[in-house]
Each structure stands twice: as structure tokens, then as C-alpha cells.
Write a structure and sequence with these properties.
Elements (H helix, E strand, L loop, with lengths): L1 E6 L4 H17 L3 E6 L2 H6 L7 E4 L2 E5 L5 H8 L1
Helix pairs in contact: 1-3
Amino acid sequence: MKMINVYGSGCKNCTATAELIKETARQLKIEIKLSKVSDLQAIMEAGVISTPAVSVDGKLVHSGSVPDLQTVKVFLS
């Protein structure tokens, strides 16, 4: 199971990022645990400079925009 964090304030782009990841994981039949992180201190501790940002298993893999479908597939596999 992959542990995924979506960092952001809960804005439209952050929500879209989380939904894209959930739907892509479902289609690829990959088990994930997705958490939305909106605490500013936790976001800063993760090294995030711009949101939305995504980490997979503790490694920051995307930051600053809603990732495209191909990018999500790459970091889920």
C-alpha cells in the first residue's frame, strides 16, 4: 500500500489533485492511503514550497500544480 499525502490549503486545485490520485489508483487497482495535509507547519516540514504538492511514501514527488494523468500514473507505479 502506498502512503500518499496531498499538501495544500484545501483549495480547488488541492481537491482536484486528491480526486485525480484516488481515481487513478482505483483504475490501476493500486491500494493507497491518501491523506490531505493542510497544517502549515506540516507542509513546511515536508519541504513544500508551493501547493498543491504530493508525496508518496514520504518522498515529495510533485509540487506547484495539479499533476497530469501521466505524472500520477508514474508516481503510483
